[in-house]
Specification:
single chain; 225 residues; alpha+beta; Butyryl-Coa Dehydrogenase, subunit A, domain 1; Butyryl-CoA Dehydrogenase, subunit A, domain 2; 2 domains; four-stranded antiparallel sheet; three-stranded mixed sheet; 7 helices; 7 strands
Length: 225
């Protein structure tokens, strides 16, 4: 790692990066080949990541107590990836959902989810990729239509990291399939895309591949918050 890059972190953040580096060298690298070849989910490593506070690195007070700066988060992601990219992916999707909750969630959602997400007790995932268009937002076909106080969701997702073990899913879908332009930004055009924050269990799960899942939403009912 570039010394100048680590020097921009404060003392506590440098210590956190060193802690993760030691974890990767001591616990991850010696077993990663066997885990990949056996197609085995790394339960022990995930539990150790929880104990290190890795799942709360992007969650501020009052919901978490281990938030770090963006440069520190990037350094930790780099260290995890050096050991095994899948571990960085398990953390990354979880962090995306935390960021969505912080930016767009209700106070009730933040209080209900973020404290448990910070400890890793509740792990989250984002469902974006689809069979017909990959991660191309313009090709997305999963649709949520309003039905009274609920959304009725139809569509499917695939290669969703952490889905089998996730307790919370941020589902990316269109609320207006006819909206133009097709690449409208979801942040500025909520008529085009909504992020639905839903407890796990709303989708049928199939096709297990490492930690990726295919999710099916056949007329799934999602109450609005």
């Amino acid at each position: 790692m570039n010394t100048a890059m680590i020097d921009e972190l404060n003392e506590d953040e440098q210590a956190m990066v060193e802690l993760v580096r030691d974890f990767v060298n001591r616990e991850v690298r010696p077993v990663v080949r066997d885990l990949e070849h056996a197609n085995t989910y790394p339960d022990k490593l995930i539990e150790q990541m929880k104990q290190l506070g890795i799942y709360g690195l992007a969650i501020p007070e009052p919901w978490g107590d281990a938030q770090v700066s963006t440069p520190c988060y990037a350094r930790i992601t780099e260290e995890l990836s050096r050991g095994w990219m899948s571990l960085a992916g398990a953390m990354g999707g979880h962090t995306v959902v935390a960021k969505l909750l912080l930016a767009y969630g209700t106070d009730e959602q933040k209080d209900a989810y973020l404290p448990r997400m910070a400890t890793g007790e509740l792990r989250a995932t984002m469902a974006l990729t689809e069979p017909g268009g990959g991660s191309d937002l313009q090709a997305m076909r999963t649709v949520a239509r309003r039905d009274g106080d609920s959304y009725i969701v139809n569509g499917s997702k695939m290669w969703i990291t952490n889905a089998r073990r996730s307790g919370l899913t941020a589902l990316l879908c269109k609320t207006d399939p006819a909206a133009t332009p097709a690449h409208a930004d979801p942040i500025y055009d909520q008529q085009f895309i909504d992020y639905l924050i839903s407890p796990a269990g709303q989708a049928d799960i199939a096709h297990y591949k490492i930690d990726g899942q295919q999710l099916f939403y056949p007329d799934a009912n999602d109450p609005t918050a």
